[in-house]
């Protein structure tokens, strides 16, 4: 009957070895047109301000998902719904595919270069993660084979100048002298494949083109974001004096500008075109200046030159890797996997703009729309908190603070007090429209508060509570207070009609996780209130009065914390996921046939709902968040019951399970779970990488290593680690940013080595013992249990 | 806080007195353009084969919902859904608005008659329910007031010749002689307002027009139903010899045919145009003959003449009223209301074609699509069973029998054995696409079986079980057996993840009604199996072998009947609607503010779901169906608990409550509930009559009178009545068709009088006592409790 995950995986994955194993690079050797969309996703570049998929610069008539995305720019796509329910949003905010700015069409001796038509003799597409550069190299012969050329292309989106991209495109004729025509262009005639009603999202505002470059300014319909894209092209490698013997002709039509550049090349002569691109939006400039600023950016870029820009950019990546890298020795696949995740997290969100957030697909595809899910607070924050400056995490918190009024409106729409943060959002307004999610998956509200708590204990920045935090915490507490009802028959408060993190149950009563986190939020609200009253009495008084927090309301909050109903299954000594879960037919995943998986592609929805199968950590999510409040035995009992019933059909699920498995002494299980996401996109495990990468789950992989294998915790604001070493690894090493200290943690068979590499000395607990770590005194501790921990 | 239904109703209903009170007619006196759609719905005509809304024949530029519908003809409109779930249907079968055949454009002295532009001096639109005729009379002056005419129009859809309609259109110039131009036409350029993607549903197949008439044949796209509409027009009232002095000009264009007929009329001279219409479909004829048959129909009709056709038609209605009428004395409003309901039920479904069924809006609007809901079995069948020949009800049963294979496919799609009848269907395939309904509202399956049981006990036609019934019963039993699971912890079977009749709860566990009816179905399957084995051993053996019913399977069925979990709330001595219902905040409807109602127009869906409010009879639906298995006390306790929490936001709800209220001695409550649907559409109580009439709930009104006030039951195949007399009525009278007897039941203050007016003598229980009723010995019994029963 049953089959293990590994068996199923082996059965069908022909993507597993598609890319070569390399510690710093993703190498595609040989081109597979049928895997092009998949490779395009993997080869995406981003710099927080914009992103592009791994599309080709030159015309390509084969299958491709063209993708250019600008952070914070969205289109309100009219909602599609079969059966309207009161409270649904009118639109779904989507990241629109923006003007294609990488395009450089090429003709060789009058024949258009098109890798779908030309004969490829070799082909390499290489993502260099160390440098943040995408490179292609190939030799191609034209369809009639009368032209044969060698091409190498390199591009990057500058991390040093976020509005700048640069492309270096080189062609060498191999057989004979030829005329080469380059047509660098900006093409605004693009669409979204996932548009609800096949609408065109953009209209033209302005364009201009001249010898040397030009600009195209588009505006999104309805939301009216102006995005200006400018370009400038330079040729080099000519034997004649620069600028002579070249014909340049500007071309323009609706939503399109190009420059046609003709040049003759000798056999063996490498001709290089450098295209500088500037992309600006009216999110940063006045509408009327946006285009001029884009032209400024390309002018500055060109004067710096390709190599200069590249140096700056690589320098930024060096800094990122210095702080963010996880080094793994003895397992190149694992090393590549974790770096791939860290690389894309850094490409997606840099924290430079508190109006931005982390979309589930980042800048790598169209799916899901919106920018922000609870993924940010629940799964991504730990990565940014532990490996970035505090300001980055703080910006993620401020994003929600700025949306507080909209969250209040959202609660009001459902007839509730306080604030309900949206399930999916771009600007603070709810975008989702499935009642069981939009209206019922309200646990998301707790994650917003938990993120504040998590931020404070990692950074010690309690001032944040007075300035911003308490307003959010109080509004969420008020929501829980109204949403819970008192059941006099049982003398308990209950929260009914919810969907928990496990979305394979809908409209349940008393989801343990939701109820538990609601109580936690209310208790935390009291903690913070007490702190403010003590440390910021004036601010506190002002806040309480502005929020109109009455004694009566606080009394109800207190009452709820004392009398919340938390379902338990006494005989099994576990928490019950929700009322009635125990009445299901309690099969395990191992009882399933392999062909039933994934359930969401094989079973009708009702069959999934009435099954015992858990989509993602639910009770265990609560035990993860509130880890310090539950002992190991409790975690073990709940893990032993729920994990065998969890299908992990959310990419956010395995990491939480991995962390708990590591803690309760299941190292093999932890490693198995870690593997499910570590190379999720590199090996196209879910068969949907072509739609874009699973950006938010990448942070979960980081979590599985640092919080799972290394057992890092921050309970009560005290840092501790409790490392194990996965069997197949020789060692691993990472940095930890904690409060005012920066640590380097190295774990190998020979022991644990923790060094202070920046900031203040601190006390670190390793396993059970406290160690004072200063610049001069690192901690050196033997690995507990050694390999047995993974046995 | 609270407010009664009556108060709320008084607050806002400006439709209440729109039509004049008349025992046999619906009279609209004076024209209100803003209520035109409402009046058009009320004034709909139908004859089982086709139907038309009360639209005007002549051009009307004001607001109107043009509606012409042909029974059994549907268009598969591509599904709209926000979030696709496995198992959803690809399309929603919709009744397409068909070619408008009533159209007769009129010009008077070159000015087009248009009631939105002309000055109306008086206006009457009268639906004569006794005769099944719609009549309009008005005097109108042209915009410049230089023409003034008197118009009277009459039309009907023949009950005697179902493919024929006839219109008599008369004009009398009032001021001066004028040229009159008639343009009778057939217009296929129509759309559905509720088309999902604004598609045009029809394409032209053929057309032809000549002096005297023509035909237009259209075909629905995708489903490819051919519908031919032919017309023929005759003038009369001319002083010159017929046919002279008249100019006739055929006109045709794409999907449109017309004839322009010009004639001069003296002041005071009434000119009459009679338009005969024939409508045929390839459901009844070969595609290539459909048009010719439509032309045959108009030729035959014309040779019969308008008056001859009308006589035939009125004769049919006389027969219907003889058998179907409910006479109420002392309350004209009630009389009009009940006749309106009976009239439309007879217009919608005549039982002549087992491929047809009863759409929730009949032929009066576009909404809901599909033709068949569980409404048919649960609410409509009793009306047809008790007041029509047995064959009519039998055809309703056969409709489902013919869809059995599709119901098997439907269950298989959800991964289940046996058969699951669709929530909404036209041809047996599921059309609905809300997971909580489509996949979870599975109780509908029980109603299909219950209808068979109900049919047998009313007709005694047990042969039906052998021929058709058992196959359906066994397939449904098999579904229940697979859908229930055994819970070893409680040693009970459970059915989880369902939506009960109360659609204001979704995805609940152990809905009492669903579980109870599942057990009932399984028990009935055994009863029928035993009967067949005894009375039809050969057929029985064949059937059991064909259905592959093993002893093992039957053992499971038996086990389920013995161990089904049926939630009870012990302390309150009631059945619990579903697991966890008692944990809700158990407010009553009287706790609501008036502006909260109806909830489905004012509350977000999650608020409705977590409220205690019941949309329609749920536990009480079970007590109604299985009335003989529960005592009065049980009914009373459950009614007392659930009724005050029921918002009756389905028009199907009050009738069930009325029947039970009457039985348990709440006559005032019964009458109040009866009133909620008796004039539902006549007074536009739900503010949606403009979309069409609530056809299926009309049968509920009949039920409230006969099963409620008169207390008619058929328990164990024995007829009984237990009448009360509503306070404001002097008397009421109806017929009952039961097994081989036809009874006339009269109830007044002076007593109950039951006469045998057809068929065999029978034994009837009145209150507690049995009466043998023959042709010569009617029963005469005093009214029990007299007026006190309504006190």
Automatic annotation (TrEMBL), chains A, B:
Span of domain Glycoside hydrolase family 65 N-terminal? 28-283
A Pfam family of the record is Glyco_hydro_65m
Q: Record-annotated residues binding substrate? A: 374-375, 615-616
Q: Cross-referenced InterPro entries, in alphabetical order?
A: 6-hairpin_glycosidase_sf (IPR008928), 6hp_glycosidase-like_sf (IPR012341), Gal_mutarotase_sf_dom (IPR011013), GH65_N (IPR037018), Glyco_hydro_65_C (IPR005194), Glyco_hydro_65_M (IPR005195), Glyco_hydro_65_N (IPR005196), Malt_Pase/Glycosyl_Hdrlase (IPR017045)
Q: Which GO terms describe its molecular function?
A: carbohydrate binding; glycosyltransferase activity; hydrolase activity, hydrolyzing O-glycosyl compounds
Q: So where's the catalytic machinery, residue-wise? A: 503 (proton donor)
Gene3D superfamilies reported for this sequence? 1.50.10.10, Glycoside hydrolase, family 65, N-terminal domain (2.70.98.40), Maltose phosphorylase, domain 3 (2.60.420.10)
Please report the stretch or stretches of sequence annotated as the Glycoside hydrolase family 65 central catalytic domain.
Answer: 339-703
The Glycoside hydrolase family 65 C-terminal domain, residue ranges = 715-772
According to its UniProt entry, one GO biological process term is: carbohydrate metabolic process
Q: Which family does it belong to?
A: Belongs to the glycosyl hydrolase 65 family.
The molecule here is called Maltose phosphorylase
Which species? Halarsenatibacter silvermanii
